[in-house]
Xylanolytic transcriptional activator regulatory domain-containing protein
Amino acid sequence: MDMTTSNPIHDDRVPTHNGMGHSPPAQVEPIPSEGEMYGDFWDPLFVIHNSNSTRKHRDPAGTPASPGHMARHTQAQAPTEVQVLIQRVRQLEQRVFSQQEPENSVSAPHSQQRHPQARRTVCQANLLGKSHWLVGFAQFDTIVHTLNNRLQDDDVEFRALFFKCQRLSRAIQQQYSLRASSLQALDGSLPSQEACNVCVNAYCRSFESVLRILHVPTFRQEYNDMWTGSQPTSKLFMLKLQLVIAIGARVVNQSDTLGTPDMASRCVAWIQEAQQWLHAPGESLQASVDGIQLYCLVLLTQIVCAIDASLVYVSTGALLQKAQQLGLHRDPSHFPAIPVFQAEIRRRLWCTVCELVLQSSMDSGSPPLISCDEFDCRPPANLNDTNLGTTSEPEPSNILTQTSFSILLMRCLPIRAQVAKVLNSVQLDPSYSEVLRLGEELTAACHHNTQIIKSMSPDHEQPTLFQLELLNLLTYRFLLCLHQPFAMKARKNLAYYFSRRVCLETAIQILAGHPTTPSGQNVNDYLNVKRYSSGLFRDPYLLASVTVGHEILCVTEGDWFSCQPVSPLTNNLSPTPKRSQQGPRTVLEEYVGLSECRLKDGAQIDIKTYVLLSCIIAQIKAAETGSPQDDAVLSAAVDSLEKCHTILVDRYKSLAQSRESPQPLQVYSGSNVPCRLGKGPNDILDINETGEGEGWSDFDVSQAEWSLQVEYPDLDWNLLNTWSACVPGSDSEGS
């Protein structure tokens, strides 16, 4: 009897043999284990199906459905064959359950691939891999459930406050878009020369010292010629300059940009202008080194200025293809005709392309678009820009040059690419031993970078704090994401305790830095980037803060096996010893303060992020005092929303007043009720209707309709006006 095509549903987890020399029937799908169904975060089970798919069944006791029930999905069979099939199903179930990775085991076969079609978390039509920060928030699923219940009940005041904040956020974003449209008519307009000088210098000492895009002496020569008028200025150079100014304005304090209050709107206009040039037909310079440089600047500006940062992953695919089309992935030694100067420029630019592609993969939780098997371009030479193309020999590694940090990033690129592939692949399901191996290699590579930095000669220039902070972020975020899924299981299974400890110490390493100041003065360049930027400069910090918050909660609730914040690993992570002296509570509270600053000044308004972190702090304090945690979470949510509303109202009024002739603007709430921005009965500042919003599940884009049907216990995914969790909830004991 042919049984291979009787059911379209196929489960890759079913062993090919049942121990008796027989192959299992293809139409029978084994019942998932309790861990798979409700709490296995390394392999969250989402049953994605169409209208013809069958549901997985359990009886009220939570045990697998009877084999007889499953047999009803098979074709008609003779009674004897049905009995034989039932017996074989029982044997298969027992074998599947016994061969699944046990909770008390630290190793499992590397080839386990369970439910590859549902390996990744479904969130508002986006698929988020395990490198996404929302995976870590599953540790606080009780906060999501509490806010879900509050938004679903009759508390109209709470709902109205939440949706007013959402509408204000959209209104502010639209104000920036309107200004950008008006600024596009001012072709070639720049801030004052003094302001441009500040921004260009800030860019060169910060991002250009780590992610090499430009040849600084050549760029500065063209920059000076532009102001003096001694040489005609090309359109391509103006586009580059505008983006450099946009990035530099975010590096320095806004008050230092010297009379450019509309810089955020200018950034939007400049990005749009550069994108139009890159996609315009007939531009021969698009497929050139200059075109790749402009493309890299566009993507970096989107991240730093928080403008469509969620779309960077898509754009990096086009950037990678353009770079490969230009041959940047091949080492220039294969082309003897290329001058030494151009060869080094190409190597530097390829390093930056690889870094942008890899980091965007981690931000979006998507598979990396690049593999180290697909290129042979070597790291650039350790030379300063002034010595590029001359007969000078490269400096030794203990001499800091303008290319040193780019070399450090390139040398640890292979292991980071492996980690990104393991985290976000839809097929790979690594065992814990594989995770430990990758973590060991990644830690060794990071420590090697640290040793090189420590060995740099004190007689020469020393690394800046910005360079050290950015290098740590670009490397250690991979270690945190790699161990996070197993660290979330460690509270119940001590076999994963090492991952839990690594995550805590790495999270502290990522979060620690100079404290914020309420006045916003005397902050370093890197802290300004954290304050204004998104994507790369937001997501790893959110995951780290959630990790630290959960560990603090575990300690407060009396977890005997909770991790201690100080260990030899922490002391080795950074060449700045002060970092290891800051405890988990300190770095968490500092980042909550930074999130409030992002509400006031950031281009991306993270309402839900701030509410989330405030609720985590409230839950920790409630656990310390023994008071009801749900009440504390609700109170903190209301207080944080009120603070958000006050901040956004002030911010919107400031934007409206700065416009020469404010015009009412139409903004639509989730319920498509138009709200006029300005005076009138439907003023966005006064409206009290309760509409629907996208809820918790989507941070950067507008409400999206579901394109897939998703089954998940205890959450109603059809309610788009809820604070929806994007990842499956963990066991309540872990919250």
User: Anything to note?
Assistant: The CA atoms of residues 355 and 413 lie 8 Å apart. The chain has a mean pLDDT of 73.
